[in-house]
Amino acid sequence: MSKGKLQKFAEMETFKNVFQYPFSVISEVPFDMKGHWREEYFHNSNPIILELGCGKGEYTVGLARIYPNINFIGVDIKGARIYTGAKQALEENLTNVAFLRTSIEIIDRFFGPDEVEEIWLTFSDPQMKNVHKRLTSTFFMNRYRHFLIDNGLVHLKTDSNFLFTYTKYMVEKNHLPVLLCTEDLYHTNGLDDRTREILGIHTYYENQWIERGLNIKYMKFELPHTGELVEPDVEIELDNYRSYKRVKRSSLDKAK
Fold it and tell me: Which residue spans traverse the membrane (predicted)?
């Protein structure tokens, strides 16, 4: 680990808005604040919104600025990334922001039933090889149901045609109500000013995709508590890239 990362981790240990519970920790020490984020951390009764895979926390912090009466929690396993958003939130005295460093695979260990109203997935890894690692898979939707309110909102903002297409099939297969769906967010007519303001928050990775001329895709849908969720049985063309200025990982052309 580089000296810079070590310094960030050491400083982040002093951040009052960061909670670090990787799997090795949570397996030994239960998270006592589960179901009690409002009263024990935020000290209010405002709604809670999560950003899963928050990276540097641009969306978490950006949304917190726009909505001071809503509580936002950014979740990521990469502490060096979380450091940026957490430090910024502290410097701006944003008391409606927290960050949780943990694996999203165990996210349901940190929130109680009906504790969260919305989930944001911003530029998640499309995980083209493994459906169970995709943050919009039924594997994760079933976990989200443990703490998301009935018909709570899930937002997907992505550059990945693969992940967007997969999510559309998953939503259609399970008849989940779609409130907005566009394959070219910044050239979509009819969005109100408030929605444009929210969706106009750019992350570090989003700026890279826009620079490359890629369309930004967005979907907002509801997740009911009832009904068995079924994976779509379809093959989807893979993205022809993996990350900024790098070629795709797989030699395959399609995947389920």
Answer: none
159 is in an annotated binding site: yes
Query: Can you give the pTM of this predicted structure?
Result: 0.92
204 annotated to bind ligand = yes
Active site residues: 125
Phi, psi (rounded to 5 degrees) for 42: -80, -25
Token pair for 227:
């009904």
CATH number where 145 lies = 3.40.50.150
Is 39 labeled as ligand-binding?
A: no
Give me the number of domains the chain comprises.
1
Block mean pLDDT (10 aa), the chain, length 256: 77 95 77 96 98 96 97 94 96 98 95 98 95 97 98 97 97 98 94 92 86 91 98 94 51 64
Q: Which neighbouring-strand residues pair with 71?
A: 48
Cβ pair 153, 186 in contact under 8 A: no
Domain containing residue 131: 3-255
Complete edge-to-edge strand list for the sheet that includes strand 97-101 = 18-20, 97-101, 71-76, 48-52, 116-122, 148-158, 217-223, 178-182
Spell out a b/e string for 177-195, using b for 16 or more CB atoms within 10 Å of the CB, else e. eeeebbeebeebeebeeee
